Amino acid sequence: MGKSITGSIAEEEDFMQLNIILDNGDLSSGNFRRTPNGRYIFIIEE
Asked: What secondary structure does DSSP assign to 3-17, as a single string?
């Protein structure tokens, strides 16, 4: 289960900063990541 963000006007740098706060600082792995279709998702439970 997770929550995704679509249609955001934020820059990737903003999501990177959020990733540093919430996760591991890497948008390609971890619980907060960027998916191949360009969405950002926070994994709550796998």
From this structure: EEE-S----HHHHHH
Smallest CA-to-CA distance from 12 within 33, 30, 31 is with: 33
Domain extent, residue 6, equals 2-43
Q: Are 15 and 27 in contact (CB under 8 A)?
A: yes
Classified as helix, coil or strand, 20 is helix
Q: What is the pLDDT along the chain (46 residues), one digit of tens a residue?
A: 899 988 899 999 999 999 999 999 999 999 999 999 999 999 999 8
Question: Number of folded domains in the chain?
Answer: 1
